[in-house]
Amino acid sequence: MFSATASDVKLLRDSIDTAAQIIDEANFKFKPEGLELIASDRAMVVVVDLKISAKAFSEYSCDKEETAGLNLLNFLTILRRAGPSDKISLKLDGSRLHVTLTGDSTRNFAVPILELHSGEVPNIGQFDFPATAEVRADVIGDGISDADVIADSAIFELGDNFKMSAESDSSKTELVLEKGSVALPALNAATK
Description:
Blueprint: E1 2-6, H1 10-20, E2 25-31, E3 34-40, E4 47-53, E5 59-62, E6 66-71, H2 72-79, E7 87-92, E8 96-102, E9 106-112, E10 132-134, H3 137-150, E11 155-158, E12 161-167, E13 172-178, E14 186-188
Antiparallel strand pairs: 1-5, 1-7, 2-3, 2-6, 3-4, 7-8, 8-9, 10-14, 11-12, 12-13
Helix pairs in contact: 1-2, 1-3
């Protein structure tokens, strides 16, 4: 049985929002050590590897690993209903994920569990990435939204800084984060 409570919904909402920009549905793994979502888009071009530690929650209980398929957009719609001071509670009962938002009132939602085929998700551990960056989820979400206004794709560059850009025939957007900034706490990239 899985249940968890967080006094700040922002981490969960921003993480799901970022993943939902790429994928519609995914299998979540509820594990004793935390939540995990590993899924690829339909074209198998992008892999989302999201892990939220049990330590991110004020209360967390999971006696055995369980998998639940969720529509990310439906789940995100509920998470967006949370007010800034609301506490969120999650409970998995087999056929539904129950979401409770507690603040000035208590609001209960039930999200249906979907039967999703996990399919072949590329093992990203097989790749040797020469650069890594730790970027806040809301900043990536904003960058993706900016790029979506201009083009169908975005380019990520890691060097002395983190850069995300998109370009069309007549327009261009660029997001730049300097190493060590609040939005970019970690950057490891070989410079040319």
